[in-house]
């Protein structure tokens, strides 16, 4: 029966495009015509959905460490970092580095060992970069257990520099063991804000002096791209992001207004804020200090003007770091990894800007030793402070515990997880300090007391409760002989500690 006749006989309506009873099945496609392929955007979305389904099976956490260069404990200028990490994580208000100098401090981060054990005691070759056993470090432990790892920024002093030392000389294209991806400032240009070189996975790329080449922004983009690639995947990742701010800039002329140069958008942001003048700034009486300090003249007006331009440059350069942290947190959230990622924020050491007449680091005074430390992640309470003394020797053991990997060497530090859980845990802990000043010196922080042994250049003793700026050393006070002797004995006990014998 024809369709029209069937409709008239039954009263059924004919709907355009519908098949009537008995009509043959339509062909799925015209003969010889291929099925339409998904677009590039559709294929990308399909891959992303697949990766995110796999990502739900991720068992171990991601770890991101943001380590600035020469930042004191102050978080001024880092409002977003304080809000996003401190407000959602744990702030350690008594955080120290064991050796207040870039290269030894970074080697300590990579090993969880004091300098007298890992062997890096200087920023100069061969006792800097060349002294570290790069085959047994935190990234090696992590990568061998399945982590994807990336280093973005400044590595150790001496990396990529030929310095007249015996063969083998450092290679500007070298990638140390343990790193899946590598974006390191190289060829001695790590303290330039423009016109620097990056080793990008074995390929050297020269960045110019355009505004878009500002080093913190470029490094941040590399870090973001790594997170974007890795976050949706099931395998965990480790990122060490090491911007060079707020370290002084190489090649800055004395007439420049800032050292270091901030990003153009941040220049002048703090111009109206008076520079700090703590009680120990340009200290008038240093007769209780070691010879190396006593021999320093009072700072001149020119010295103070230079310190001030450094102060403003440092503050303004950190604003780009603050923006980078905000971008990192945002990318982690986009990748769906917010609840399985730990973010550490810290620095390799502080710096003295006029305290005790000094303009450097390496000295074992509070300004050089104290650094910020904030950790955000599932096992760190949100929005709390912990006042127990901690040190950068603790970072590698903490990350190893979070990642469920066994360190390949005997670490000297201890995990921060018990400290984060319990505000009383470790409150009585002693901290060991080391320095190459005075031909190799050491110190100890014990409760309210700090005792510094300058080798052949004398000792110092300070009560940090009564004298937080270390103005008056009590080492010669008869009334403090007992505590001085007690601390001297304790320092002798731990000075060459290793592994579990360390405090």
Structure description:
The protein is built from 13 helices and 16 strands. 45% of the residues are buried. A ten-stranded mixed sheet has the order 7-6-5-4-8-1-9-10-2-11, with helices on both faces. Helices cover 28% and strands 15% of the residues. Residues 1-30 and 164-169 have low confidence and may be disordered. The termini are far apart. It is of the alpha/beta class.
Q: What keywords describe this structure?
A:
503 residues, alpha/beta, 13 helices, 16 strands, disordered N terminus
What is the general shape? globular
**Biggest sheet: strands, sense, closure?**
10 strands, mixed
Low-confidence parts lasting 5 or more residues at pLDDT below 50?
Answer: 1-30, 164-169
Mean pLDDT: 90
Distance between the termini: 97 Å
In short:
The protein is of the alpha/beta class. Helices cover 28% and strands 15% of the residues. It is globular and about 95 Å long.
């Amino acid at each position: 029966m024809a369709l029209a006749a069937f409709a008239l006989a039954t009263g059924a309506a004919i709907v355009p495009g519908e098949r009537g009873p008995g009509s043959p099945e339509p062909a799925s496609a015209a003969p010889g015509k291929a099925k339409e392929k998904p677009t590039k955007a559709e294929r990308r979305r399909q891959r992303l959905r697949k990766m995110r389904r796999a990502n739900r099976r991720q068992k171990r956490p991601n770890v991101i460490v943001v380590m600035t260069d020469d930042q004191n404990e102050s978080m001024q200028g880092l409002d977003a970092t304080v809000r996003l990490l401190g407000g959602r994580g744990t702030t350690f208000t008594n955080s120290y580095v064991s050796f207040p100098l870039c290269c030894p401090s970074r080697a300590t981060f990579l090993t969880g060992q004091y300098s007298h054990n890992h062997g890096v005691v200087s920023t100069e070759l061969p006792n800097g970069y060349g002294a570290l056993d790069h085959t047994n470090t935190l990234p090696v432990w992590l990568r061998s257990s399945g982590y994807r790892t990336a280093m973005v920024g400044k590595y150790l002093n001496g990396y990529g520099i030929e310095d007249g030392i015996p063969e083998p000389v450092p290679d500007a294209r070298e990638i140390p063991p343990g790193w899946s991806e590598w974006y390191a400032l190289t060829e001695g240009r790590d303290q330039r804000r423009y016109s620097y070189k990056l080793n990008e996975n074995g390929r050297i790329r020269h960045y110019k002096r355009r505004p878009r080449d500002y080093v913190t922004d470029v490094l941040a983009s590399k870090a973001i791209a790594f997170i974007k690639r890795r976050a949706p995947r099931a395998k965990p990742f480790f990122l060490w992001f090491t911007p060079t701010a707020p370290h002084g800039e190489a090649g800055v002329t004395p007439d420049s207004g800032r050292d270091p140069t901030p990003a153009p958008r941040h220049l002048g942001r703090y111009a109206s804020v008076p520079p700090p003048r703590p009680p120990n700034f340009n200290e008038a009486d240093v007769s209780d200090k070691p010879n190396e300090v006593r021999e320093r003249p009072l700072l001149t007006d020119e010295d103070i003007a230079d310190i001030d331009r450094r102060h403003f440059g440092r503050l303004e350069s950190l604003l780009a770091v603050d923006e980078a942290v905000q971008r990192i947190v945002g990318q982690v959230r986009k990748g769906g990894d917010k609840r399985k990622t730990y973010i550490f924020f810290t620095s390799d050491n502080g710096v003295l800007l006029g305290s005790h007449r000094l303009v450097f680091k390496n000295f074992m005074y509070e300004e050089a030793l104290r650094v910020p430390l904030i950790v955000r992640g599932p096992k760190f309470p949100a929005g709390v402070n912990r006042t127990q003394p901690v040190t950068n020797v603790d970072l590698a053991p903490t990350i190893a515990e979070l990642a469920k990997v066994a360190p390949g060497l005997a670490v000297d530090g201890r995990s921060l997880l018990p400290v984060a859980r319990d505000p009383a845990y470790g409150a009585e802990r002693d901290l060991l300090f080391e320095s190459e000043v005075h031909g190799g010196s050491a110190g100890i922080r014990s409760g309210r007391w700090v005792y510094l042994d300058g080798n052949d250049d004398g000792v110092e003793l300070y009560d940090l409760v009564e004298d937080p700026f270390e103005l008056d050393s009590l080492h010669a006070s008869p009334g403090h002989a007992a505590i001085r002797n007690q601390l001297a004995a304790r320092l002798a006990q731990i000075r060459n500690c290793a592994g579990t014998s360390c405090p």
